[in-house]
Design brief:
- With 216 residues, this protein is mainly α.
- The protein is built from ten helices and three strands, in the order αβααββααααααα.
- The chain has a three-stranded antiparallel sheet.
- It is globular and about 55 Å long.
Length: 216
Amino acid sequence: MTSSPASPRPRQTAQQHALDHVRSLLAAGTLKPDDRIRQEQLASQLGTSVIPVREALKTLQAEGLIRYVPHRGFHVTRLSVDELTETYLIRRLLEDEIVRIAADRLEQHHFDVLEESLQEMERLAPEGDVAAMIEANRRFHFTIFEAADRPRMVDFIRILWQTTDSYRSMYYAELEARERVNHEHRSIVEALAAHDVDRAVHELDQHRQHAVIDLG
């Protein structure tokens, strides 16, 4: 019996490509709060027209990541201290719960990914490769979150993370902060490996609080 060929993967639209590109610029800190986003320049970089870029920016505007200023164009949103604090408070409520759910579901392959991410971040910290360290940090945390098998909770957490992406690179700019992040990550893994969920949640709370204090 002849097996049917695998269905080709759907081609990414120009709008989705533009959306992913701007998200990556925010996550890497290339675009910072208040920075102007030039549509024509982005379109030229992506080899597309301005239309899909504009639609992508409207999506990010609806998510609160960027804002439109009449006669001045699109800019990266700057959160107030209250907005930043509130965002991290909502994250705490969701993340504390999802870590408690995930704790009993973590298997060796999860801990392998956590260790790989930790080692990568420890290697990157002295080099100051903020973009790569942020990516490893995201992989670290979402390995834990996704182990809970609560996709809707993970989606909400991801949206909250995206809201503060442009701030994360500011926090990681200092070597002291990068080293502290690595120490905190190591403590979280040690607590999870010891099945000490309360300690893991406490370490995670401290981890977030340090970011709020530094960014505020």
